[in-house]
Amino acid sequence: MNDNPANTTENRVLATLNADGSRRWLRPRLSVGGFLKARRVVAYALIVLFVLIPYLSIGGKPMLRLNLAEREFSFFGTTFLPSDTLLMTLLMVTLFVSIFLITALFGRVWCGWACPQTVYMEFLYRPIERLFDGAPGKKQRIKGSSGARKVMKHIVFLLCSLALAHTFLAYFVGPEVWTWMLRPPTEHPVAFLIVFVTSALMMLDFGFFREQVCLVMCPYGRFQAALLDRHSLIVTYDEKRGEPRGKKKRHQPVNAGDVSLKVVEDTRGDCIDCHMCVTTCPTGIDIREGLQMECIGCAQCIDACNTVMVKVGKPKNLICYSSQAIMTGESTRFVRPRTLIYPVVLTILLTIFLMVLGGKATAEAQILPRQGSTFYALDGDSEIANQVRMRLVNRSEETITYTITPPEATRLMIDSPEFTLEPSDSEVISFQLVVPAAAFDIQGVFNTSLIITGSDGFEKTLRFRALGPMGHASP
Fold first, then answer.
1. pTM for the structure as a whole
2. What's the pLDDT tens digit per position in 348-359?
């Protein structure tokens, strides 16, 4: 909460910036209600899920793993390699279109209910803060703990940040993160440094930047203006019912002895201007000012307002999940252009993705760009050697032996044409393809091919353009 009365909503430049340019530190008041209880169940279930996902497997492969060291990405039991550019592109575009569709239908439900930033901030760090600092209230303005309580609060914050750092890193290294934890730092200084930096970033995020991550760093709030329309579900204030806002007047009877008391009509709206919706907002906005970029759709203002409405004897849902169309008296439309276009695009993308995924071979072989000299002569210019670099990837779950077979009248300069690769392993193979000088055309080109076969039945023909001296075409 804010202790400076001059920094009112009217005087404030931004939700988290005071009129004098200083940062307005937010300590939102907790408003208990149906939405908070539902979000709490969802949040703690997600926290458990976030911790378990790096250790779950499907078909012997990680459910989700971003193995940067080996350049592998496992998603629901399917491994994607750097060469899977098309598949990865289709997957990312599908993900973005899904976000567009969800936003068009349900607004920022992800931000308020499922985003890890919100989940950990509102249901882990803020409860810890309230435990040590006390809960902010209308008549209680607490600047924060001090002394031993402040030290203890930051120690607990640090422990939580360490746990989050290891959970986060488990998505990249898997169960090995536990080895990092249990072994002395001297045995793995690089891993220790990674954990240290990640833990420090977690501490800075949830201890200092906090809601600034949502407001400044995350671009999603800025995208919502283009992703939402008048029929999208958002947290909104019923201005027709609530305005003009203000405290309700206590009317006295004109004549206490008169049996029929004269009641003065109050023309004010249902909003009593208690500012509970503002003091409970985790991003510090006033939802009565309309849809704003900072709103994450968490429904804390709905719970706060409903509690007040019950106390003053007014109907609930002065602030509620609704749409701009409904608030202006229009009928809501579930079917509209964007809710039709997005599913069609998603269907097309998923169909292409599954077709490409289903047609993916058990191995991949490709010729890489040349390096060094283009060609050189052997045996008195009777033969021409070309350097060949080839990448071979084993996509199967078995150890496979691959063989390179050159075309007739040519030969390979290599120790062995056979290569054995472990599952998901890859190797760059370098060798020379030797071609008779007479095979080249007048332009010094000989178009040929290499056949790659695997012990599992894999076979692929690679086109290769051998180069040699010009003017040596055979008669």
1. 0.77
2. 999 998 888 887
